[in-house]
Amino acid sequence: MGVYRYEELKKAARQARAEIARGRGIAVEKGIRKKPRSPEKRELLFQRAVERLRRYPPLKTEQGIVLPYFTEHLRRI
Known about the structure:
The chain is of the alpha+beta class. The protein is built from 3 helices and 4 strands; from the N terminus they run H-E-E-H-E-E-H.
């Protein structure tokens, strides 16, 4: 079993989030969701996210919802 340092895990997580954001997909258990959601379901998910994330609200785009930790990566791309 290997020894992992926090900084190494943090860097790997940052790279994974950037890769997912570049693919404009949504992280799911088996990979990345690329199928678009219906407008009604997208609006419902956005409202739920806003209720949970009052301090750091999600960003709504024409392609879907971008969570706060992906927003920074999208600005760089």
